[in-house]
C-alpha cells in the first residue's frame, strides 16, 4: 500500500506563503503603537505644546520654575537646527517636536527629538506654491500632535495625517481640489483645531465651505459651514456698499486660526473669517452667530486668533480695522458688543495675550509701525504703546539685515525695536520676540508702561522671525525663516 504523502502540493504552497510573510515581518522595521512609543511621554515637569498657541490656544503657559532674569548673553542655547523656509511654529508632545517647513520645492514634515534636536523622521511631498507677494514659499501653519498622529496643513492646502511614531501617511486630503477655494493672498495660513474626533479646518471654500470638519481618524468630511449663507446680505457699516452681496468669486480665505471654548455650558468654535467672526457648534457646524469685522481694504486679511476670556471674545486686526470685544449671552446664539476701537490694538498676525485685565499685543501693518500695545480689557482704551525702545532711535544705525551699531561709538548694539513681534506669557511674565535681530525680551505686564527685565540676542534667529514662541518643559523653541533654536529657561537645579 503506497505511503500517503506528508503534505500535498497545496499545503506546501500555503506553508511557503506563511514562511515568506513571517520572514518579511521579521525583516521589516517595527512600527510603534502610540502606547509603545516612549517619546510621546516625558518624565520631566512641565507641559506639552501640541498645537498652535499651546495647550490653551492663547499663547499662555502654565509652566513654573523658570529663570526670573536672564544672563547678559541670554538663556543657555541647548541646540540649533538649520531648517527649510516657512513661518509656522513647531509643536511639541512629550519628547517629540514636529516642524513643517519647505526645502527644494518640497514641503517637509520633520520630527525632531525635543531635548537633543536630533532628526527622527521626515515626510516630504511636492509643493508648487509660490507666494505672489515675494514672501517665502514655506508652510504657514503649526502641526497638531496627539500620541498617535500628526496633522499638518500646507501652503497649497494639503491636509495630512501622519503617524507620529514614524511619519507614515494615514490619510491625505487636497483641500484645493476637494473644495472650491478661491485664490488667497499668501497661500494657506490657518492652523487646524482638533476637538475629539473632529479636525476643524478653515478651508476657505465657496460657497459654504469656509470651515470644514474632517473625521480625525480617516479624513472623511463631517460637515461644511460658513460662507454665502452666513454673510450674504449682512450690513457692513460702510458708506458703500451698505450690505454685502455675495459673488461666486468672493474670497473666503482667513489667516486666523479657530479657537474652541465652552461658555455658559455650550461649546463654541470661534472662527475669525475674512468677513468677520463666526461662532460654530462643533458637533454639526451650525452657525451660532456672526459679527461683521472686515477692513474696507481689499488686499487685507484677518490673521490673529480670537482671544477668549470667561464669556468674552476679543478680536483684532490691522488694515485700519482695530479691535472689538464681545460678551456671549447665556443662550449661546447672541452677544453684546462691549466696545469697538478702530485705532487701539491693531494686531497684524501675532495674537494678543490677556493678563490682569489688559490685552498686550503688537500693532502695526508695516515693520516701522510695529509697536507693543497695552489696552484696557474693559474699555479698549490704550494704556500705552512702545516700539521696544523708549528713547530716541537716532543713536542707532542699521548696518545689516539684523545688526545695528551706535552711531557715536560704532559698537554693535542689541536690536532696539520689536517691529511686528510675537508674545508668550509664562509664570506671570511676557516673553517678546522681535521680528529682526534675534532680539528677545523678558517683561513684567503692567498698565503703567513697558517694564523690561532682561533683553538678549538669540543665536541664529534673524529676520523674518514671525513664528510664535513655543515653551515646553522649560525649553523655549524659536524659529526664524530657516533656523530652529532651543533655549533653556529652567532655573538651575539646587
Strand content range:
35-45%
Q: What oligomeric state is this?
A: single chain
Treating each run of at least 4 consecutive H or I residues as one helix, how many helices? Answer: 3
Task: Give me the CATH fold name.
Answer: Methanol Dehydrogenase, Chain A
The biggest sheet, with number of strands, parallel, antiparallel or mixed sense and barrel status, is: 5 strands, mixed
Q: What distance separates the N and C termini?
A: 87 Å
Strand order across the largest sheet: 1-30-31-32-33
CATH class: Mainly Beta
Helicity level: under 10%
CATH superfamily: Quinoprotein alcohol dehydrogenase-like superfamily
Q: Outline of this structure?
A:
This protein has 494 residues and is mainly β. 5% of the residues lie in helices and 37% in strands.
Notes on the protein architecture:
It is a single chain. This protein has 494 residues and is mainly beta. It has a single domain (46-488), classed as Quinoprotein alcohol dehydrogenase-like superfamily (Methanol Dehydrogenase, Chain A, 8 Propeller), CATH 2.140.10.10. Helix content is 5%, strand content 37%. The protein has helices at residues 9-27, 175-178, 228-231, and strands at 60-61, 77-82, 91-93, 96-103, 106-113, 119-126, 144-145, 149-153, 158-163, 169-174, 193-195, 198-201, 211-215, 221-225, 259-263, 266-272, 276-280, 287-292, 307-309, 312-317, 322-328, 335-341, 353-355, 358-363, 371-376, 382-386, 396-400, 403-406, 412-413, 422-426, 429-433, 439-444, 451-457, 470-472, 475-479, 483-488. The strands form nine sheets. It has a five-stranded mixed sheet with strand order 1-30-31-32-33, with no helix packed on it. A four-stranded antiparallel sheet has the order 2-36-35-34, with no helix packed on it. It has a four-stranded antiparallel sheet with strand order 3-4-5-6, with no helix packed on it. Strand 20 (312-317) and strand 21 form a beta hairpin. The longest helix has 19 residues, at 9-27. The termini are far apart. Residues 1-30 have low confidence and may be disordered.
Amino acid at each position: 500500500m503506497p505511503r500517503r504523502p506528508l503534505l500535498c502540493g497545496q499545503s506546501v504552497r500555503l506553508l511557503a506563503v506563511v514562511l515568506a510573510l513571517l520572514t518579511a515581518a521579521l525583516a521589516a522595521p517595527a512600527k510603534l503603537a502610540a502606547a509603545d512609543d516612549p517619546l510621546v511621554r516625558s518624565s520631566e515637569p512641565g507641559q506639552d505644546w501640541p498645537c498652535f498657541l499651546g495647550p490653551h490656544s492663547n499663547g499662555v503657559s502654565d509652566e513654573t520654575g523658570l529663570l526670573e532674569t536672564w544672563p547678559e548673553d541670554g538663556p543657555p542655547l541647548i541646540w540649533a537646527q538649520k531648517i527649510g523656509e516657512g513661518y509656522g511654529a513647531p509643536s511639541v508632545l512629550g519628547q517629540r517636536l514636529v516642524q513643517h517647513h519647505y526645502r527644494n520645492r518640497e514641503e517637509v514634515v520633520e520630527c525632531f527629538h525635543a531635548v537633543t534636536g536630533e532628526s527622527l523622521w521626515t515626510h516630504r511631498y511636492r509643493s508648487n506654491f509660490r507666494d505672489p507677494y515675494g514672501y517665502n514659499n514655506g508652510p504657514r501653519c503649526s502641526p497638531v500632535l496627539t500620541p498617535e498622529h500628526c496633522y499638518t496643513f500646507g501652503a497649497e492646502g494639503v491636509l495630512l495625517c501622519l503617524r507620529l511614531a514614524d511619519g507614515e501617511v494615514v490619510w491625505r486630503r487636497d483641500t484645493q481640489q476637494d473644495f472650491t477655494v478661491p485664490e488667497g493672498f499668501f497661500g494657506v495660513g490657518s492652523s487646524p483645531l482638533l476637538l475629539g474626533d473632529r479636525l476643524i479646518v478653515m478651508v476657505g471654500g465657496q460657497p459654504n465651505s469656509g470651515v470644514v470638519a474632517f473625521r480625525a481618524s480617516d479624513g472623511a468630511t463631517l460637515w461644511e459651514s460658513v460662507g454665502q449663507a452666513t454673510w450674504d446680505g449682512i450690513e457692513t457699516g460702510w458708506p458703500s456698499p451698505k450690505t454685502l452681496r455675495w459673488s461666486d468669486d468672493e474670497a473666503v480665505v482667513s489667516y486666523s486660526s479657530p479657537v474652541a471654548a465652552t461658555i455658559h455650558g455650550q461649546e463654541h468654535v470661534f472662527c475669525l473669517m475674512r468677513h468677520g467672526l463666526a461662532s460654530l457648534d462643533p458637533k454639526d457646524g451650525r452657525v451660532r452667530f456672526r459679527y461683521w469685522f472686515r477692513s474696507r481694504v481689499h488686499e487685507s486679511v484677518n490673521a490673529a486668533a480670537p482671544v477668549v476670556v470667561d464669556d468674552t471674545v476679543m478680536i483684532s486686526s490691522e488694515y485700519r480695522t482695530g479691535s472689538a470685544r464681545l460678551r456671549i449671552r447665556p443662550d449661546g446664539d447672541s452677544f453684546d458688543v462691549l466696545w469697538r476701537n478702530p485705532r487701539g490694538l491693531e494686531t497684524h498676525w501675532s495674537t494678543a495675550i490677556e493678563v490682569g485685565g489688559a490685552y498686550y499685543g503688537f500693532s502695526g501693518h508695516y515693520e516701522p509701525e510695529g509697536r507693543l500695545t497695552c489696552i484696557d480689557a474693559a474699555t479698549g482704551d490704550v494704556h500705552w504703546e512702545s516700539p521696544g525702545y523708549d528713547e530716541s532711535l537716532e543713536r542707532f544705525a542699521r548696518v545689516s539685515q539684523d545688526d545695528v551699531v551706535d552711531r557715536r561709538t560704532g559698537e554693535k548694539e542689541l536690536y532696539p525695536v520689536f517691529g511686528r513681534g510675537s508674545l508668550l506669557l509664562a509664570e506671570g511674565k511676557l516673553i517678546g520676540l522681535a521680528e529682526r535681530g534675534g532680539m528677545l525680551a523678558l517683561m513684567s505686564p503692567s498698565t503703567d508702561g513697558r517694564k523690561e527685565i532682561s533683553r538678549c540676542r538669540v543665536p541664529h534667529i534673524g529676520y523674518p522671525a514671525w513664528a510664535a514662541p513655543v515653551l515646553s518643559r522649560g525649553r523655549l523653541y524659536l524659529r526664524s525663516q530657516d533656523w530652529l533654536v532651543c533655549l533653556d529657561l529652567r532655573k538651575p537645579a539646587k
